[in-house]
Design brief:
alpha+beta, 5-stranded antiparallel beta sheet, 4-stranded mixed beta sheet, 11 strands, binds adenosine-5'-triphosphate, nucleotide-binding, transmembrane, membrane, UbiB_bact, transferase
Length: 546
């Protein structure tokens, strides 16, 4: 039965590919003969949309294949290093317009997951969904405390669909890798699908999203710039997420924002500020900043506050990542491409034998045209993208968390400029980078290191008196041992000296006795030899004494 379902799905995928003429997009030199013959065999499936551009055909095909393919296209749209711009731009328009599922099923899912009846959990529950996306659906409800909430429920059956579709995608990727190996070494289709599989399964576990949202909320506790709705962990489960309901203006609704009297310039600047705070202060950033996930509070529009939801995808950075970003951005700002190239080599980001001049020239070629524009028009997301693409050519393995950050930066810039087209991103970002750099060197770095190690010392402090006593006792013991050793050594040294003296004395006596023997003073000579023997024995005993 499962095999039959898989075959039918495979047929549907094939049919979609052919009716949108996607097979025609493969360059002729890459079309291997078995594939060409197979295509000829399926003569009844023809391209029915020849008038549409290739980007549009790919987008429509993915949309008709459902959520797994739509999300895949959305992910690919940000890989501009892999795709030509026209296709990437069209894929960015992909929308998961998915029909909602029956609210009664959502109710059942919640009750099964939380082991209780909806009525005993909540005061009110709306079976008509507030929103419906590919993986989950959102319902409104009210807690017994009166708090208005939303409940995100994973689509029933979605795990099976994802497992089946991703496994088919895997097979297709492996086939492509085998049929066109030289092309695949750059595109790495199997790895791309594998990365996607992980992302999808991460999104399926709402406890991850809950934990991320709690962390982000804690990081911005009391902030005037960003509000993150409260999560109610006791109502959360892998399939169910319960959080405070927010009322905000969707960021894409410029008219409503203006009608509310929002300070658009400040709002745009605060967007950049929130992003860089997450990156450089917290090393933890919301990485799914598409407009459906960002709202603006209705309150105090002259002091505008962002509201962020959907923490399903977040990025984390380590100190090296931040150093990479800060140092490179600052070098870009000074248009010091030599420094950028040197930084890459010195830090081991590119292999040590990279020719700095060549790398510098490659960076200059892609970035100089961008920096010809006024700063307010420069996209730092694109600058970073171009740098990554160039660095990849010089064998730098770009870290996935940096790619995620670069994509998020593109979103942030896009949203910011939509709100306030003259937004000077750099003016807002530069103080963050400089501040961070300063904290890494000089006295601030020392203070930071002490502060960072403070928990360690705080933990050890109660044990300190005992440790001090122990080490003093140990020191005393060591001192005594040392003293004993020294005395031993002195004694040994002294007896060695005496022994050597006696041995030399004995040798002189021996010489004297031999001379006396030569002079036929036999009795004196024998006495001398006797004394020699005694002196040598004494000397020997001293020298060999320990
Ligand atoms: N706390 C909330 N308060 C009010 N509305 C909310 C809240 N959370 C989600 N929503 C609404 O539900 C929609 C979908 O929510 P969310 O983005 O979390 O789901 P999703 O399944 O991850 O969707 P997508 O995959 O499109 O990001 C939001 O665009 C918003 O309109």
């Amino acid at each position: 039965m499962r095999k039959l379902r898989e075959l039918l799905r495979l047929y549907k995928i094939g049919k979609t590919i052919f009716t949108y003429g996607l097979d025609e997009l493969i360059p002729a030199r890459l079309q291997v003969w078995p594939a060409r013959w197979a295509r000829k065999g399926i003569f009844w499936l023809k391209n029915q949309h020849p008038e549409l551009s290739r980007g549009k055909r790919i987008r429509l095909a993915l949309e008709s294949l459902g959520p797994v393919f739509i999300k895949f296209g959305q992910m690919l749209s940000t890989r501009r290093d892999l795709l030509p711009p026209d296709i990437a731009e069209e894929l960015a328009l992909l929308q998961d317009r998915v029909p909602s599922f029956d609210g009664r099923l959502a109710r059942k899912q919640i009750e099964t997951s939380l082991h209780a009846k909806i009525e005993t959990l909540f005061d009110q529950f709306d079976e008509v969904p507030l929103a419906s996306a590919s993986i989950a659906q959102v319902h409104t409800a009210r807690l017994k405390t009166g708090q208005e909430i939303v409940i995100k429920v994973i689509r029933p059956d979605i795990e099976r669909v994802i497992t089946a579709d991703v496994s088919l995608m895997h097979s297709m990727a492996s086939l492509i890798a085998r049929l066109v190996p030289e092309r695949s070494s750059r595109l790495r289709p199997v790895e791309v699908v594998e990365e996607y599989r992980k992302t999808l399964f991460d999104e399926l576990n709402l406890l991850r999203e809950a934990a991320n949202a709690i962390q982000l909320r804690r990081n911005f506790e009391g902030s005037r710039t960003l509000y993150v709705p409260e999560i109610y962990p006791s109502y959360c489960h892998e399939n169910v997420l319960v959080m405070e309901r927010i009322y905000g203006i969707p960021v894409s609704d410029i008219e409503a924002l203006e009608a509310n009297g929002t300070d658009m310039k400040l709002l745009a600047e605060r967007g950049v500020e929130v992003f860089f705070t997450q990156v450089f202060r917290d090393s933890f950033f919301h990485a799914d900043m598409h407009p459906g996930n960002i709202f603006v509070s209705y309150e105090h529009p002259q002091d505008p506050q962002w509201i962020g939801i959907d923490c399903g995808i977040v990025g984390t950075l380590n100190r090296d990542d931040k150093r990479y970003l800060a140092e490179n951005f600052l070098a870009f700002f000074n248009r010091d491409y030599r420094k950028v190239a040197e930084l890459h080599v010195e830090s081991g980001w590119v292999p040590a034998d990279t020719k700095v001049e060549e790398f510098e020239s490659a960076i200059r070629t892609v970035l100089e045209p961008i920096f010809e524009k006024p700063l307010s028009e420069i996209s730092f997301g694109h600058v970073l993208l171009n740098l990554f693409n160039t660095a990849r050519r010089f064998n730098m393995a770009v870290q996935p968390q940096l790619v995620l950050l670069q994509k998020t930066l593109l979103y942030v810039e896009g949203v910011g400029r939509q709100l306030y087209p003259q937004l000077d991103l750099w003016k807002t970002a530069k103080p963050f980078l400089e501040d961070w750099m300063q904290q890494q060197v000089g006295y601030k770095a020392v203070i930071n290191a002490v502060r960072e190690n403070a928990p360690f010392w705080a933990e050890k402090l109660p044990d300190l008196p005992e440790l001090v006593y122990d080490s003093l006792r140990q020191a005393k013991l060591h001192n005594r041992q040392l003293q004993r050793l020294y005395e031993q050594y002195s004694r040994h040294h002294k007896s060695q000296g005496q022994g050597n003296f006696l041995l030399v004395m004995g040798a002189s006596l021996l010489l004297g006795s031999v001379l006396l023997l030569g002079m036929e003073e036999t009795s004196w000579a024998v006495t001398g030899l006797g004394i020699t023997l005694v002196v040598w024995l004494l000397g020997w005993s001293r020298v060999s004494a320990r």
